């Protein structure tokens, strides 16, 4: 027996969708609410017209009689029975005898809303419903003989940032040869406005068409195609639609599209997390290329500092690169494969655990459009076959098949594992999802619903995909200007570009993305842009013009000799100064900042006017600093404060701020963020004139400075800390970022009681860091690390940072101390350096980027799937560099080569280049003339060996590079350097 699947349902007029100058003869009935009379057709679930009771104004529905329904794309004529179910509801029974199918369609009205819905479906035979459509089923219409007839529409698609909007009068609207697909549609006359919503899961939820009969035109809107059964094993919700009718909704004395949009918004379900988006700044914390650019625990420390600087304002932090070797590595592994260089699942869990204390909403970046061979989930089960290439950065991806991913159960399994392993996760950013990777509206619906079902807010790279659930979009600069959608959704989502009046979210942070590390820049963006934006987002828009926008709550913003924000007619900000209560509902405190050097007087919110005095605090890196009490006179307060300095006012003493620096890690106050030595003990040799102090750079980042003293100092000065909680016999690295000037020697060391100190040192740091997004890009900081074993049986170790000799005025700067547990220990083979890349704590073993590489990471073996790992589980890989010169290089902190000494180098390689790759031994002091090794690396796979002797200079380093823009794969492993025998 052949099984039939019901794919769609369409209602159409046998006479075509034409206007009639006179009502057609049909038996009509009326359902009504306290606001509306709705005339309906008793022969078919069709609306004839709407009458607004108060004014008797009319909007039309479908004038021509209907008889057909499309089911699964084919037209069928059902037998229809009708009955009233009270004054406000009617039910139609539609029987399709040939299909052995029946359904109930209810029309009901409450207030100003008509609901049309399929309340029951009975598939009595083998035939199964897949999709349902009602073409030409005009639910609400306007005619050109009605005054001020006009329309506003918007179409979004799965295409990246493709949005089209239209605002026009019906008189100017051209006749449409066929129905036009839309996502939003609002119509109005001079008396009434209307819009519709439904549960169609396609982007094109609405159909609209302009038709004409003689010299009269009609514009009608109705529903698109409902998906009921996309796959045989699952049904979606039964179809429903709502029509919202309104008069002058915003009370401005006119009726236009904005009134219809307000009516739509009042009935629109808000995206999951919209309360959080209104009260948070957002930014990206980045890890990529096996480089721990923003390790999870340091990201938490940075967020704590912002928490103090912004007085507890919410932070939505996207952890980009939380998996595998970082960003764009091992997608689509959402779970079970965490970035060990950034701290792994343990440190990520610490971040999630402590985030609520600091008003942080943590999010992660996933990609379910591309898969990389290193991924644990890499499989034909989820890939497009034949294969299609995707993004190529650290690895080369293949495009995924959205449907295969869903139908195989892999997508749900990965997301559920992530939900289980990452409790406390608030939002998920979905990368590159949309038409470019095979747009699929059903897949987008499934993905967005799954993310919401797991309790996560939804974010995407571009506006469009999952637009109904979308809360945050990345490329806001590329979003077209939109009036209709922004009018409706400005208060629930950061998905719009900057606007002259509404401003718009600026995702400035301190997590490295786009090289943002400047705390001061975040604070400045907060007060000039983000704070007023978030204030306005607490109030839905009610009226919009080019020069003024009004919101609920008696809030408005205007362009009147400059940008100005008001509430109840009281100025809150003029763009130069601001006096903004927060939160906008509770008004617990008031943020203040001004460019003025003179006293400014501000009118207080009504809830504050009974106070006699207020307390003014300055906001600093260390939290609130009390300034003074301010007197309230006639409900106003005058403020004289430092210009361009952030403050906050409280009606009484502000609550305590408690920040624990270093929680969850082995090192207390690892970034010296407390600006004290409460967690560190100063160490100083007898007679030393050096000084240990905390300094703060221009980005408001604190660090330790060990200075030599005015006359120079050959004796040590430093700090120490006792470290506990280490696992018995486990191998760790202790590391710190360091920069020296004036030849001062800086060291890090670790020892257990009674044991010899293990240490590492540098006395020059002159290589300018070029790694993209690295906190120290453009500086000469080096990471100085020492490997050690925790004492057997447990116990404590002593960690020391110290500086020794140096010229007068020399210094050593230390920042971001870290202790990392290694997953095993490499046998160094008694060599100066031996790196098999199996147990690297962070970065690339002895190498750093010499020339800003963005295409290097540790490639991980995935048996049978990867071909870019030489020995063991990890190798160092460079892909598609597209540049010449040095690619990697060693530093004094990773390889110390003595002058006039002979060395042997050996490493395994995989080289796809016919020519170009080289290894060299160079000296910056000696220039090119001092180069003592410069050998080509052959094409293919093999072992490279060479012997070279350094010259008289003490700064020799090894570099790997290319003199050709090859764009080819290059891998090394088991890198060894030792003194020649």
From TrEMBL:
Residues 1-26 form the signal peptide. Residues 258-521, 667-807 form the Endo-alpha-N-acetylgalactosaminidase domain. Coiled coil: none annotated. The keyword Disulfide bond does not apply. One of its GO terms (molecular function) is carbohydrate binding. Residues 31-257 form the Galactose mutarotase-like fold domain. It holds the Pfam family Glyco_hydro_101. This is Carbohydrate binding domain-containing protein. It comes from Oceaniferula marina.
């Amino acid at each position: 027996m052949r099984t039939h699947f019901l794919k769609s349902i369409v209602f159409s007029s046998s006479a075509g969708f034409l206007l009639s100058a006179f009502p057609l003869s049909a038996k009509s009935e009326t359902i009504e609410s306290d606001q509306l009379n709705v005339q309906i057709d008793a022969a078919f679930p069709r609306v004839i017209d709407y009458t607004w009771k108060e004014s008797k104004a009319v909007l039309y529905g479908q004038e021509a009689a209907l008889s057909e329904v499309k089911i699964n794309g084919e037209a069928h004529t059902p037998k229809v029975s009708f009955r009233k179910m009270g004054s406000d509801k009617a039910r139609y029974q539609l029987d399709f005898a040939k299909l052995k199918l029946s359904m109930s369609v209810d029309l009901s009205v409450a207030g100003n809303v008509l609901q049309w819905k399929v309340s029951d479906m009975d598939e009595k035979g083998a035939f199964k419903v897949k999709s349902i459509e009602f073409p030409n089923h005009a639910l609400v219409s306007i005619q050109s003989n009605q005054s001020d007839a006009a329309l506003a529409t918007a179409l979004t698609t799965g295409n990246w940032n493709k949005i089209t909007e239209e605002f026009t009068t019906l008189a100017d609207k051209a006749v449409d040869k066929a129905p036009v697909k839309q996502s939003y549609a609002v119509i109005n006359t001079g008396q009434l406005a209307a819009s519709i919503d439904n549960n169609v899961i396609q982007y094109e939820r609405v159909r609209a068409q302009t038709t004409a009969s003689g010299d009269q035109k009609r514009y009608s809107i109705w529903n698109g195609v409902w998906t009921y059964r996309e796959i045989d094993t699952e049904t979606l919700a039964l179809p429903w639609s709502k029509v919202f009718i309104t008069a002058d909704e915003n009370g401005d004395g006119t009726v236009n599209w904005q009134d219809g949009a307000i009516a739509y918004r009042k009935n629109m379900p808000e995206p999951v997390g919209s309360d959080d988006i209104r009260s948070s700044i957002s930014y990206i914390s980045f890890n990529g290329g096996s480089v721990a650019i923003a390790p999870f625990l340091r990201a938490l420390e940075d967020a704590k500092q912002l928490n103090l600087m912004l007085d507890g304002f919410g932070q939505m932090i996207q952890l980009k690169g939380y998996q595998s070797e970082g960003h764009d590595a091992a997608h689509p592994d959402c779970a079970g494969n965490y970035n060990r260089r950034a701290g792994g699942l343990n440190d990520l869990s610490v971040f999630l655990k402590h985030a609520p204390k600091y008003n942080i909403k943590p999010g992660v970046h996933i990609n379910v459009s591309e898969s990389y061979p290193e991924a644990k989930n890499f499989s034909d089960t989820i890939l497009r076959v034949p294969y299609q290439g995707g993004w190529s950065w650290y690895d080369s991806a293949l495009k995924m098949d959205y449907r295969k991913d869903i139908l195989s159960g892999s997508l749900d399994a990965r997301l559920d594992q992530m939900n289980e392993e990452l409790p406390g996760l608030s939002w998920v950013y979905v990368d590159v999802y949309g038409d470019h990777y095979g747009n699929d509206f059903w897949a987008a619906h499934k993905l967005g619903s799954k993310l919401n079902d797991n309790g996560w807010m939804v974010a995407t790279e571009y506006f469009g995909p999952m637009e109904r659930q979308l809360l945050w979009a990345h490329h806001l600069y590329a979003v077209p200007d939109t009036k209709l959608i922004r009018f409706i959704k400005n208060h629930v989502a950061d998905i719009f570009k900057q606007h002259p009046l509404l401003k718009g979210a600026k995702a400035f942070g301190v997590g490295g993305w786009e090289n943002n590390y400047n705390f001061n820049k975040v604070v400045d963006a907060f007060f000039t842009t983000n704070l007023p934006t978030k204030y306005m987002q607490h109030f839905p828009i009610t009226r919009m013009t080019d020069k003024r926008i009004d919101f609920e709550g008696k809030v408005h913003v205007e362009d009147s000799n400059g940008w100005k924000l008001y509430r109840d007619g009281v100025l809150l900000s003029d763009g130069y100064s601001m006096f903004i209560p927060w939160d906008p509902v509770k008004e617990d405190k008031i943020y203040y900042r001004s460019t003025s050097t003179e006293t400014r007087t501000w009118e207080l919110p009504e809830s504050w006017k009974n106070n006699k005095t207020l307390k003014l605090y300055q906001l600093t890196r260390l939290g609130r600093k009390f300034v003074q009490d301010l007197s309230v006179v006639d409900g106003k307060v005058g403020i004289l404060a430092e210009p361009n300095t952030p403050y906050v006012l409280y009606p009484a003493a502000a609550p305590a701020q408690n920040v624990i620096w270093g929680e969850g890690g082995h090192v207390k106050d690892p970034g010296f963020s407390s600006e004290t030595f409460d967690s560190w003990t100063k160490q100083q040799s007898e007679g030393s004139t050096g000084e240990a102090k905390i300094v703060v750079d221009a980005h408001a980042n604190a660090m330790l400075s060990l200075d030599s003293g005015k006359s120079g100092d050959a004796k040590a000065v430093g700090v120490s800390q006792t470290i506990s909680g280490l696992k018995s016999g486990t191998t760790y690295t202790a590391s710190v970022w360091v920069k020296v000037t004036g030849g001062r020697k800086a060291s890090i060391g670790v020892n257990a009681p009674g044991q010899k100190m293990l240490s590492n040192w540098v006395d020059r740091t002159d290589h300018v860091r070029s790694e993209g997004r690295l906190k120290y890009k453009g500086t000469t900081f080096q990471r100085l690390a020492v490997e050690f074993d925790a004492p057997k049986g447990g116990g404590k170790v002593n960690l020391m940072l110290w500086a020794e000799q140096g010229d007068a005025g020399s210094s050593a700067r230390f920042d971001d101390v870290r202790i990392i547990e290694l997953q095993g220990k490499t046998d160094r083979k008694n060599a100066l350096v031996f790196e098999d890349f199996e147990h690297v704590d962070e970065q690339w073993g002895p190498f750093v980027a010499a020339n800003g590489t963005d295409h290097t990471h540790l490639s991980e073996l995935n048996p049978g799937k990867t071909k870019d790992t030489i020995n063991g589980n990890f190798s160092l890989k460079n892909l598609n560099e597209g540049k010449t010169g040095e690619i990697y290089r060693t530093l004094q902190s990773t390889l110390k080569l003595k002058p006039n000494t002979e060395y042997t180098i050996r490493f395994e390689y995989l080289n796809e280049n016919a020519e170009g790759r080289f290894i060299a031994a160079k000296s910056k002091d000696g220039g090119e003339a001092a180069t003592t090794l410069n050998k080509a690396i052959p094409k293919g796979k093999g072992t490279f060996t060479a012997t070279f002797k350094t010259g008289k200079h003490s700064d020799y380093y090894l570099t790997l590079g290319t003199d050709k823009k090859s764009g080819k794969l290059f891998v090394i492993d088991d890198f060894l350097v030792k003194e020649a025998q």
